[in-house]
Automatic annotation (TrEMBL):
The gene is rsmI. Residues 5-205 form the Tetrapyrrole methylase domain. One of its GO terms (molecular function) is rRNA (cytosine-2'-O-)-methyltransferase activity. Transmembrane segments: none annotated. This is Ribosomal RNA small subunit methyltransferase I. It is an enzyme of class 2 (transferase). It comes from the Bacteria. The keyword Membrane does not apply. The keyword Ubl conjugation does not apply. GO terms for cellular component: cytoplasm. InterPro entries: 4pyrrol_Mease, 4pyrrol_Methylase_sf, 4pyrrole_Mease_sub1, 4pyrrole_Mease_sub2, rRNA_ssu_MeTfrase_I, RsmI_HTH, SAM_MeTrfase_RsmI_CS. It catalyses: cytidine(1402) in 16S rRNA + S-adenosyl-L-methionine = 2'-O-methylcytidine(1402) in 16S rRNA + S-adenosyl-L-homocysteine + H(+). Belongs to the methyltransferase superfamily. RsmI family. It comes from Aliidiomarina shirensis.
Amino acid sequence: MKTGTLYIVPTPIGNLNDITLRALEVLRSVDVIAAEDTRHSGVLLNHFGIESKLWAVHEHNERQKSEAIVQRIQEGQSIALISDAGTPLISDPGYPLVNACRSAGVPVVALPGACAAITALSASGLPTDRFLFCGFLSPKQQARLSALEALQDETATMVFYEAPRRILDTLTAVLDAFGPERQVVIGREITKQFETYLSGTVAEVLEKVAADANQQRGEIVLMIAGAPANDHNIPAEALQLLSLLSAELPPKKAAKIVASHYHLRANDLYKHTL
Ligand code: SAM
């Protein structure tokens, strides 16, 4: 018997036109659409005249449902997984299901599409060559501050999802953890009528958000620039390796190898060989 496929299908994060032709085609053709919230997704599917059967698969039942879904796919049915908005599994349910499908050798096909983190990052003006997606911070003050402090020396751009009611507290914690001068960008209501981007130092953005209640509403992606890759960020093992390699190799080559291994800048390492 031919097995079916699990499709991971992104849906819009605000603007309904941001669904792809392929997503519509897959949603129309599958036997079942597994949705995080069937009522919420029902509105989207109605809008596009999609009548496929809906199943509720959310964080509270997805472990149990995964088994049934894997079995259906093995029996030849195809199933699409969608979340309330954006790409499933990205701060959304789906991981246990995809993991179960992969373990059972069931085909998984992910469609590209809307994702708030990637959309915000591409418009942020912050470096995009390396970024760290951190999802939601803890709502608890101390846990949130500790998580941010642990990222103080991170050199990649950091991307967070945040609830509007917590954005002021979170920006205050960012200021405490990274200092007032670190660059941040807030992307709000992306693809929607009141889309805005605010950028500047943490202190500047905090002041703007505090002064404007509208900036404390809607959906928010918070991005924090990485720390400059300076001496302070070069781990001791990287310097040791550099010293060993530069005894054998031209300094530029040694710096390049260590830089690529530790995700550092070759120039910063090269200075240590002089
Ligand atoms: N899976 C989704 C994705 O691909 O972006 C994210 C789901 S997560 C539960 C929801 C969070 O994503 C929101 O709290 C907000 O931080 C962010 N988000 C979703 N849509 C957004 C939008 N239109 N503008 C800004 N942030 C958004």
